[in-house]
Amino acid sequence: MTTRYVVVHQTRTHEPTAYELKLAGALEEVYARHGHELADVVRGLNSSSVFPPDGGTWTEESFRAEIERLGA
Question: Of 60, 42, 63, nearest to 52 (Cα)?
Fold first, then answer.
């Protein structure tokens, strides 16, 4: 029996942008330092140098919208 699996890079539609790479790095840092709960993620992102597309501060709503937009 052959096990099938998807390699993450096979499912993306484009190379990650500089913003996407920066956000991914910030999220890894946030998960390691602040926690995994949504409130922890938002707080951690607001202490990082990555801002939401509107340039403001992250909220739970803006984080959800951005992750949905990115298809994550």
Answer: 63
